[in-house]
Design a protein that fits this description.
- It contains 16 helices and four strands.
- It is mainly alpha-helical.
- The chain has a four-stranded mixed beta sheet with strand order 1-2-4-3, sandwiched between helices.
- Strand 3 and strand 4 form a beta hairpin.
- Helix 5 runs antiparallel to helix 6 and helix 6 packs across helix 10.
- The termini are far apart.
- About 25% of the residues are buried.
- It binds zinc ion.
- The site of zinc ion has 4 residues, from helix 9 and helix 13.
- InterPro entries: CAXX_Prtase_1, Peptidase_M48, Peptidase_M48_N.
- One of its GO terms (biological process) is CAAX-box protein processing.
- One of its GO terms (molecular function) is metal ion binding.
């Protein structure tokens, strides 16, 4: 086993063990005693149901990740990468087409293998806890729309990246970075108007008290709000959310219909204020810049490693190729990605506190935000007492109790 194989295998195993430890600690941290903040909001049996939801999801996650681990290692050590390479090369296409087929088939196989898990998750687990609203028809449509989009957008992009490495020599990484950045920005730009409507219906929020209050609030913080939509989240799940997308004129805020149904006007304004807070505090811009810098570093490292023979030997490949190099570099890069994702989650959790603070200061009430957070976690059966290590690895938002306490502490010095 060479150094590349060692690093990749080590990362896969360490990642698996870290998750296992975090999940075990998380299950042990479940407390039967309802936290004080939630007394009166959570009925005892509903609270027990939320813990059962965490348990069921953890067990399911364990089964999926173990299956993934066995499959990945099996495919690798039984020479799957080489066998597929021989098959695809045998068809005798142009190297770039061969690359598209090789990578495409690997991704398709992974998608198809994970499909039963996804079906079980939606139609058994989510159904059992009363969340699922997805019909089999919607599920199938989603699957094919997702597949179509990946082929339509991912295919040409991947072909371009392979072509740069094939024809432009040492500056390939720079071209790849440039093109990927343009595509990323373009997608962000068109997503609200072209992509999201393929999956959901967006209708302008109807005239009335809620709309007026939201527009009054937006004016009070100098936020040029033009597009305020209701999204039919109830098409798939009873869970609720709100989000912000797009740039410039394409900026839009969408509230799930399930959110509007369950919250008071004051709570909805607070939730919206939180989303606007992310924009005003430049979190969205920061994430974008980090994403762009990250892809630059990644392409540069890719250009350094793609011609390393050892990387191909690690996967028993007889003939090195660009496309196989893309896949293997992706696996070699996983430790960097893991560390980066942990760092980004830390930043993201800080951003959530800042957005909460913005919402409280600009709406001049902390109770609406606190009530909204409580209701959201009750309706979504959130785990109220996650283990800190699990939070450290997985949470992009701070646990709800910490958010509530931070909001209330802030109030004391305001
Ligand atoms: Zn947020």
């Amino acid at each position: 086993m060479n150094i590349y194989a060692g690093i990749i295998l080590g990362t896969i195993l360490i990642g698996y063990l870290l998750d296992l430890v975090a999940e075990t600690l998380n299950l042990q941290a479940l407390q039967t005693e309802l936290p004080d903040e939630f007394k009166g909001v959570y009925a005892e049996d509903a609270y027990r149901k939320s813990q059962e939801y965490t348990r069921v999801n953890t067990r399911f996650g364990f089964v999926t990740s173990t299956f993934d681990l066995v499959l990945t290692l099996g495919f690798w050590f039984l020479g799957g990468f080489e066998a597929l390479d021989q098959l695809v090369r045998g068809w005798g296409f142009h190297p770039i087409v061969t690359g598209l087929l090789y990578i495409g088939m690997l991704i398709l196989a992974k998608t198809l293998i994970s499909l039963p898990f996804s079906i079980y998750d939606t139609f058994v687990i989510e159904e059992r806890f009363g969340f699922n609203k997805t019909t089999p028809k919607t599920f199938v449509a989603d699957f094919f729309k997702g597949l179509g989009l990946s082929i339509l957008i991912g295919g040409p992009l991947l072909a371009g990246l392979l072509a740069f490495f094939q024809y432009t020599g040492s500056s390939a990484w720079l071209y790849c970075w440039l093109v990927t950045t343009i595509v990323m920005l373009f997608l962000q730009f068109i997503a609200p108007t072209w992509i999201m409507p393929l999956f959901n219906k967006f209708t302008p929020l109807e005239e009335g008290d809620l709309r007026n209050r939201i527009f009054d609030y937006a004016r009070s913080v100098n936020f040029p709000l033009e597009n305020l939509f209701v999204m039919d989240g109830s098409k798939r799940s009873t869970k609720s959310n709100a989000f912000f997308t797009g740039f410039g004129k394409h900026k839009r805020i969408a509230l799930f219909d399930t959110l509007i149904e369950k919250h008071s006007v004051a709570e909805l304004v607070a939730i919206l204020a939180h989303e606007i807070g992310h924009y005003k505090k430049k979190h969205i811009l920061q994430n974008l810049v980090v994403g762009i810098l990250h892809s630059g570093v990644m392409f540069y490292l890719l250009s350094l490693f793609i011609s390393q023979k050892g990387l191909f030997e690690a996967f028993y490949l007889e003939q090195p190729s660009l496309y196989a190099g893309f896949i293997f570099f992706g696996m070699l890069y996983a430790p960097v990605e893991l560390i980066l994702s942990i760092a980004l989650q830390i930043v993201s959790r800080r951003h959530e506190y800042e957005a909460d603070r913005f919402a409280v200061e600009t709406t001049k009430t902390s109770e609406a935000m606190v009530d909204a957070l409580k209701k959201l976690s009750v309706h979504n059966l959130s785990n109220l007492t996650p283990h800190p290590f699990y939070v450290f690895l997985n949470y992009s938002h701070p646990p709800v109790l910490q958010r509530i306490r931070a909001i209330r502490q802030g109030k004391a010095w305001m």
